[in-house]
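Action item from last week, closing it out:
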Amino acid sequence: MKSKRYFNTTGFCMPERHYMIDPLRNQKIIFDLIEKTQYFTIHAPRQTGKTTLLHELAHRLNKEGNYISVVFSVESAGYRSITEEIANKKIINSLYSSSGQYLNKKNCPIPPEKYTKDLTLENYLIDWAISQTKPIVLLLDEIDSLYDDVLVSVLRQLRNGFQIRPKRFPSTVALVGLRDVREYKTKVRPSEVSLGSGSPFNIKAESILLGTFTKEEITELYSQHTKDTGQIFLKEVVDRIYELTGGQPWLVNAIAREIVVKILNEDFTKKITLDHVESAKENIIQRRDTHLDSLIDKLKEERVKNIVSAIINGDGVLFDNYDDSLLYCRDLGIISETKPIRIANEIYREIIPRVLNRNLQDSIEEEGETKWYIKSNGKLDMDKLLKAFQEFYSENSEVWLERFDYKEAGPHLLLMAFLQRVINGGGRINREMAVGTGRTDLLIEFNGDKFVLELKLKRMPSARQKGLDQISRYLDTLGMTKGYLILFEIKPSSIIPWETRVKWEEVSYQNKNITIVEM
């Protein structure tokens, strides 16, 4: 029997249509702030459930009957050339049109066209609050779509009204967007930055960052599908999906939808396997859905570039200088809050290098029909593959590194592009990249075999020794005894010519067999 509900990947979730878990489950803080008539911000990356939470919150508050609450978006005023006067009208129109979705007519504000006073958001909210017997909880979505004077004007009007709440202004206002309010001051013109405080919304009591799903919450979400259809997501499947997604809500839903709808064609009698999970991951990456495209778009920004380059290289140098960049990347959902700092989840770790070296991947052509790096028994010849890369790197790297937007991470990205053929041939690459480690670790799985590669830039003479120590420890954690240490020389070939920098050496180190590949 076809399920009435499904895994949602577009728009906000509705319990009667979609599998979802209560977005307010861990948000006692929000109800406490509302009770104390506080103003606050909610921020989270795109497609993590902000709008779902807002709708659920407004409906719940209205149903309980102690408040009247409306969610509305200010995005219609979110372009640079707009005047404050027109922006006010657009924002007020959005508020009025949205109020009808949440409130009966007597609780709605007056239609803007019938408003006789100077039509500013502040005046409009004052008169609405005075006309009501219950306190108003106002939830402004997409607040960070506003620019310059308009953004400052809106925040100032809300700050002015804060003093006369709850009888003559909304009791609680929540500003909702991708970024915390601390970031808003960077979006106004320099002449407008000084507002007598660190932020034009310095009245906020809390800044709430929405988290990702836990493994238990993913299990709860998927169990709703099982209850409706009988189709089970086994524990090993949930565990792997959690590894891939890091609990990012859109990815959690997208993987499940890809398996259930696209791969298994809604045949609920079929068992969901780990192979289905890997196929779903690859399909989503290859298709580059809107969610992934919005992530990719952010990679062009300078402060994102600083962080992502540092993570790919394992650099820790001057990283404290990028604190704002760090918070920005965290708020966008690109990095995790773990220490050391990593790309947020395995799917992002997979797609980011692919996007950054896409042009190179397209230019690397297979030589003939036979896959020359595959042995006659179907196994991967890693030595042959890496020796071919040494040759490719010595012939092409200087041209390609100049073309890379991410020049600092160029050597690592070149090798990952070269190894992409392994994935295309049915293998898998697990990338371990983290700030301050001084390296990137790749675990390649192909036809039952595993290969460990450690990538390291030769910034210091000690790089080789440190690399041997690091790969030895890494092999210990994996219970393996063979690995490859890839050392990239960062000095130009005019100083150290290729004939002396390209080396291949096999050594025994701490009971491990290490192949040192230098270039």
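Closing note: The radius of gyration is 27 Å.
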